[in-house]
User: Which sequence fits this backbone?
């Protein structure tokens, strides 16, 4: 919940200009709902994708203040679902997020499904169980993985300045995230799902994460509010991946 419409357009335009010749991977911006149309215009003609930060699973109805997937279908290509802040602050359950994932696919949107454990869950030795459960329940009855993106964001690392170590993230994403996706869709299909690390990602640490084989990119939080930091993250990840 940052930036006015004018600020969002200014930020998107700066990112577009800085990455005008970038070809090292996919870059997606996810501004607040009120800025989606304006940012879409600012990005027209570029290779930068556009996503929403959330959506409601019903196409329309008496849900004052909500944004349906039908409203987003002509505006953007991606949508972030199950972000830890929505789980923790707004009480969204795996079952509710599952409805969103299915609705997103129905609308032709690519869901960026977020999973991750709290500090207490990690300390209790339940991190793997929690992440596996989130994936299994949020993808219940989702028949295929094509178009899916998964972001592992340990809740204890979000906005704290304390990121997971690259080794911790690699272990969770290789063994739990990829393992669960393989059990649901088969190993071949699972390896085609982009896996992102999120949680205090900065230009200084992003390459260390990107060098891990199970990590393909990043879900960037606070650093995305600064065009220079965000674009540097994109460049360093691409370089680490040899793109």
Assistant:
């Amino acid at each position: 919940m940052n930036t006015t419409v004018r600020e969002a357009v200014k930020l998107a335009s700066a990112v577009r200009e800085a990455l005008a010749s970038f070809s090292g991977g996919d870059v997606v911006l996810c501004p607040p709902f009120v800025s989606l149309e304006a940012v879409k215009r600012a990005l027209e003609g570029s290779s930068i994708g556009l996503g929403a930060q959330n959506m409601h699973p019903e196409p329309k109805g008496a849900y004052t203040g909500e944004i349906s997937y039908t409203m987003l279908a002509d505006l953007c290509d991606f949508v972030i679902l199950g972000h830890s802040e929505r789980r923790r602050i707004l009480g969204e359950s795996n079952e509710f997020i599952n409805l969103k994932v299915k609705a997103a696919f129905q609308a032709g949107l690519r869901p960026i499904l977020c999973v991750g454990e709290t500090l207490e869950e990690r300390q209790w030795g339940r991190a793997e169980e929690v992440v596996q459960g989130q994936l299994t329940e949020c993808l219940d009855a989702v028949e295929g993985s094509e178009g899916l993106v998964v972001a592992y964001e340990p809740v204890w690392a979000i906005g704290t300045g304390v990121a997971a170590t690259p080794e911790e993230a690699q272990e969770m994403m290789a063994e739990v995230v990829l393992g669960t996706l393989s059990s649901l869709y088969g190993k071949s299909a699972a390896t085609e799902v982009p896996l992102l690390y999120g949680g205090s990602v900065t230009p200084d640490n992003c390459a260390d994460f990107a060098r891990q084989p199970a990590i393909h990119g990043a879900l960037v939080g606070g650093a995305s509010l600064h065009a220079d930091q965000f674009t540097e993250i994109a460049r360093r990840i691409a370089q680490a991946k040899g793109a």
User: Anything to note?
Assistant: The chain has a mean pLDDT of 96. The chain has eleven helices and seven strands.
